[in-house]
Amino acid sequence: MRRTPHKHIRGAQMRLICAEIAKESPDIVAKQNLNSQELLIEGHDCTQSECENPDTAPGMVLPFETDFLSDHKVIRSGDEIPVLITAPEERLGAAVTAMNSIHRNSKANVVFNIVTLNESVVHLRTWLSKTDMKHKIIVFDPKILAGKISKDPQKADTAKPLTFARFFLPVFLPDAEKAIYLDDDVIIQGDIRELFDTSLKLGHAAAFSEDCDSASSKGIVKGAGNQNSYIGFLDFKKEAIKKLGMRANTCSFNPGVFVANLTEWKQQNITSQLELWMERNAKEDLYSKTLADSITTPPMLIVFYKHHSNIDPMWHVRHLGATGAGNRYSPQFVKAAKLLHWNGHYKPWGRAASFSEIWDKWYIPDPTGKFHPIRRHTEEK
């Protein structure tokens, strides 16, 4: 019998969470999807009985209240392309900017599935009401991670709940057969349909860009050792890792951008496998001691070892957030890239990132005024 990846999220627990959200935000109703056990937050003026009992709440799509970019509307065509992206409160501007870059560079029928925490729902909805981007907001319950992440206080900052949302794709997208996952610190310059159309080999549940076969392979993360191969992420002295028989010099991949075949993902119980290795690491400390902040990478490297497809390297040009990124890539190469990823310390909404002017092009100001990029010229005024 196949194990249900999220059997630990019981219906009663989900109803309790729904009720708490409805109580805290009377203008929002939490809708429980009983089939997927996902929690969607959707705009709706609900009655008291509806809000208190999410099982009877109307299943309506989040309304898109649009008064921004009305002159730029285009006719969207084709089947829906599900894109999942996370949006922590302090980085909402990153997610909205990444989404806008996709939206404005494609005529595809993209649906953005934004995973956030309950505290950010109202802020995010206010921001997105100024756009015409088709979206759903999904609330992530950190309780799902109990017993799966290290309790080491030194690692607490890197173990932020939303980082692990990518592991639960089928839960958030129960009806999708294929989907794209994106980190929030990206800008898309190509047509997202091209990435979505990436061909996955038979039996493969995901496609990534490997760290050894692209211009991004030049990037060595300062202070984190060589993170182009498995030995940069996993402790090969540990017996549990030795028993897997993996080669330490195997080229790694970056899971910040990937295309997933969710049918294969579910059939192979990928989520359960990832959860298993999270639990084992929490108990046995299996990750490399030189690991930087890529704590989601090691379990994915194990589960997808020599069993994944590849995406076009130009669809994941990364390390733009690393030291010296401005010297690593020419402006011509950056302009030609289909997707830019500022993984590393320096983010494009911060003061010292390279190529931040590209990110600024797609930034939509926060109507609440809470989020704003830091720029040298604004400090000098």
UniProtKB/TrEMBL annotation:
InterPro entries, sorted: Glyco_trans_8, Glycosyltrans_8_dom-fam, Nucleotide-diphossugar_trans
Pfam families reported for this sequence: Glyco_transf_8
Transmembrane regions listed in the UniProt entry: none
Keywords associated with the record: Glycoprotein, Glycosyltransferase, Membrane, Signal-anchor, Transferase, Transmembrane, Transmembrane helix
Subcellular localization(s) per the UniProt record: Membrane
Source organism, top-level taxon: Eukaryota
Family: Belongs to the glycosyltransferase 8 family.
Name used for this protein in its record: Glycosyltransferase 8 domain-containing protein 1
